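Researcher: Good morning. I'm working through a list of sequences from a screen, and I'd like to move beyond sequence-only analysis. For each chain I'm collecting a predicted structure so we can compare shapes side by side. This is the next one on the list. No need for commentary yet; just the structure.
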Amino acid sequence: MATPATLSALELFCKAMNKVTAEIYQLHPDRYILVSGQEEGAPTCPYENVQQWVGYDTLTKEYIRFTKSVYKKLVEEMENKKIKI
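Model: Good morning. Structure tokens for this chain:
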């Protein structure tokens, strides 16, 4: 899959690791989402356990890893949405 021409050096480095940092997330917050670990094709943890939530890049259509700070922020947002419903 081709890399978009607009990626910065940091984005290119992190893309090689499939990791999204807080800095990258803030550049494109609507691009990255959490999806259920039960989704078809979702990666399992290294110990083959199903993860509750996994990161997903809606532009490249690939599963990605968030840094801990981004992951915690997105999980908190998901939990807040559940409470409001």
